[in-house]
Amino acid sequence: MFPTLPTLEELLHPQSQPADIQKKVEANQDPLDPIELFNMSWRRRDGGIPHVVLPRELTGTKAQIVVMSSAHFPSGSHKVGPGYSCLREKILRDQITTEGNTLVFPSTGNYGIGGAWVGPRLGFRSLVVLPEEMSAERFEKIRGYGAEVIATPGCESNVKEIYDKVWELRKNASNIILNQFEDFGNYRFHHHVTGGAAVELCEELHGKGIGRGSISAFVWAMGSAGTMAAGDRIRQSFSDVKLVGLEPVQCPTLYNSGYGGHAIEGIGDKHVTWIHNTRAMDALFCVDDRECLRGCQLLQEGQAVLKSELGLADEVLDFVKGRFGISAICNILGSIKTAKHYDLGEDELVFTAATDSYDRYPSVMRRLDDEEGKMTDDVAKARIDIFRKQPTTWAQEGTMEVRRRWHNQKYFTWVEQQGKSVDELNALWDPGFWEAQAAQIPALDEQTLALRS
């Protein structure tokens, strides 16, 4: 029995949680208490979804860009949700036990941190497989949450090395692999919880006179690509929405089968994930990793310049402070590109989110200082153009031919290396396959309530 297993519906709408659980959550002061599993929601206990509508003075776009923040999630990132969702389904379907199994979370960062938080909260021994060149703060958080870690060769781009280590660990049947790149628990969390939250926030903003009551574009950089599932949910409510994926200029895998290393921690590459619904994606943009690093430092450490040069309000600066990591800047720059590319108007909204917060990156910023020198006020002023003058280059329209090519690239990782069949791959091209994945959520929630009682 697992008394602290929330349903996805309870995570989308925390107010639907039983009164006794809500009381325990509100009284709790320990961030490592298992009751905090019920806080894996975009909504805070006051009912609001933390977000900022970026000022046009910063973005230079006519359309307004809405950034949802996940800094309030347990572990400081929404990736704790997919980690939980994947584990929940293993508990429900495979009847794994805390006594006999070790959880393995392959990751390039935030999912591993999320898994390190979730697993021990439910009593499991947990192991995270992570590239050795990821930020020092990531390793500290993983160990601090009670998990173990295996560091594999390389950086953010070296997903293959993670897979190789996971294949070794599979040989021990007691190791349970929770692979965010292929596990549809990841897809289901984002479809229901993230996508549902975005739709509801859009409606709330419209009630305040912001936007026209619909989402014109949903923009996200692919790590596991689980969050792109939120786009499938958004499209159910707003059929005209543009779903836009992002990847680094330094490793343009989908863009032109490119390869290389990059510094946008939180984004995977050199492969197309199994759970990425490529057929649903309308466009792809590439973002420069150096601009993401510089932009992150500007928003965090250059706030006085942003206020004096752009007149940004204190409430905007206060919200941004500490909430935006490097991948958040990537999402923002990609949203600016999207708004310009589609020439979106003043009453249109582009939605994205801050995947994690700044607390994972101080060491990365100090490394940037070592490489480029400290950011002076003059440098900070020049960096404003990273946002205001973001070009619309590195754009690729998702024609049906291009979408098929994106889909076909899954073959090389998943059929040749990871044991999937061609029939399984072909099934992913059918839109009905993805609808069926989301359709499983109510039954899984019912099983969760039965197990919890």
What secondary-structure arrangement, pairings included, does this model have?
Layout: H1 8-12, H2 19-27, E1 51-53, H3 56-59, E2 64-69, H4 80-94, E3 102-106, H5 110-121, E4 125-131, H6 136-144, E5 148-152, H7 159-170, E6 175-177, H8 184-207, E7 217-221, H9 228-237, E8 242-248, H10 253-256, E9 283-287, H11 289-301, H12 303-310, H13 314-320, H14 326-341, E10 349-354, H15 362-372, H16 377-388, E11 395-397, H17 400-408, H18 410-415, H19 422-427, H20 431-439, H21 441-452
Parallel strand pairs: 2-10, 3-4, 3-6, 4-5, 7-8, 7-10, 8-9
Antiparallel strand pairs: 1-2, 9-11
Helix pairs in contact: 4-5, 4-8, 5-6, 8-9, 11-14, 11-16
Report on this structure:
- The protein is of the alpha/beta class and 453 residues long.
- 47% of the residues lie in helices and 12% in strands.
- The radius of gyration is 21 Å and the shape is globular.
Q: Kindly state the percentage of residues in helix.
A: 40-55%
Estimate what percentage of residues fall within beta strands.
Answer: 5-15%
Rg value: 21 Å
What is the number of E strands?
11
Strand order of the largest sheet: 1-2-10-7-8-9-11
The gross shape turns out to be: globular
Q: What CATH architecture label of the largest domain applies?
A: 3-Layer(aba) Sandwich
Q: Give the CATH class of the largest domain.
A: Alpha Beta
Mean pLDDT: 94
Count of discrete alpha- or pi-helical segments spanning 4 or more residues: 21
Spans with pLDDT under 50 lasting ≥5 residues?
Answer: none
Secondary-structure-derived class: alpha/beta
Number of domains: 2
How would a crystallographer describe the biggest sheet?
Answer: 7 strands, mixed
What is the third-level CATH name, the topology of the largest domain? Rossmann fold
Question: Gap between N and C termini, in Å?
Answer: 8 Å
